């Protein structure tokens, strides 16, 4: 066997060994955590100001477990959006396109997707998402937030017909029924329109 072939064989073996090691790392870091059971559900609070009453709703085609939130009094535009529990921001930016709906032009063109959004990891395999924010989020990826900390303002960016907060709770990255202050919201499917009112206990 020539020297060149010997070197080539060694390189191939090295590449295969490194690929196998990389695969092991991917499995350990990505796959294994997904198989672990989630921890206890955090005591999530409504992601809005302490003491305010908001309407939680869904409608056919909205997707199971998704919650749209509207204040029961006053305009929704620009209302503070708060972290519903402490955690680490994993995404803060734009999903899809923003569109052109603003307080000065509420009937402007719709965008696509979630518009300005924030995602927070709360540990124990629990996450929350906040969509259609008015403007650039007030937090950044990697930032630690406490419960009740303002992360943005209610808007109508993305695929949104009117100012509201689209909110999700996720366990192991899968959407689940939202709970607030230990109480289930009752929104589990989008087979029919459903609304319920809740008062915020996000008073940290």
From TrEMBL:
Parts of the chain that traverse the membrane: 12-36
SUPFAM superfamilies tied to this protein: Duplicated hybrid motif
Coiled coil segments of this chain: none
CDD domains: M23_peptidase
UniProt entry keywords in alphabetical sequence: Membrane, Signal, Transmembrane, Transmembrane helix
The M23ase beta-sheet core domain, residue ranges: 78-176
Keyword Membrane among UniProt keywords: yes
Molecular function GO labels: metalloendopeptidase activity
Source superkingdom: Bacteria
Region named Disordered: 93-113
Annotated PANTHER family: L-ALA--D-GLU ENDOPEPTIDASE, PEPTIDASE-RELATED
Protein name, entry field: M23ase beta-sheet core domain-containing protein
Protein species of origin: Rhizocola hellebori
């Amino acid at each position: 066997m020539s020297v060149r072939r010997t070197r080539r064989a060694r390189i191939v073996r090295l590449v295969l060994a490194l690929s196998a090691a990389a695969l092991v790392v991917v499995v350990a870091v990505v796959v294994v955590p997904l198989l672990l059971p989630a921890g206890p559900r955090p005591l999530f609070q409504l992601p809005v100001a302490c003491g305010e009453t908001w309407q939680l709703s869904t409608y056919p085609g909205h997707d199971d477990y998704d919650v749209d939130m509207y204040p029961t009094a006053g305009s929704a535009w620009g209302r503070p959006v708060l972290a519903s529990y402490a955690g680490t921001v994993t995404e803060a930016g734009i999903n899809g396109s923003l569109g052109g709906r603003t307080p000065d032009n509420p009937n402007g063109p719709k965008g696509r997707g979630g518009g300005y959004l924030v995602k927070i990891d709360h540990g124990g395999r629990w996450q929350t998402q906040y969509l259609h924010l008015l403007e650039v989020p007030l937090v950044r990826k990697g930032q630690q937030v406490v419960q009740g900390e303002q992360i943005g303002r209610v808007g109508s960016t993305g695929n949104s017909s009117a100012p509201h907060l689209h909110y999700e709770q996720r366990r192991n990255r899968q959407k689940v029924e939202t709970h607030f202050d230990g109480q289930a919201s009752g929104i589990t499917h989008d087979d029919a329109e459903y609304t319920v009112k809740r008062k915020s206990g996000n008073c940290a």
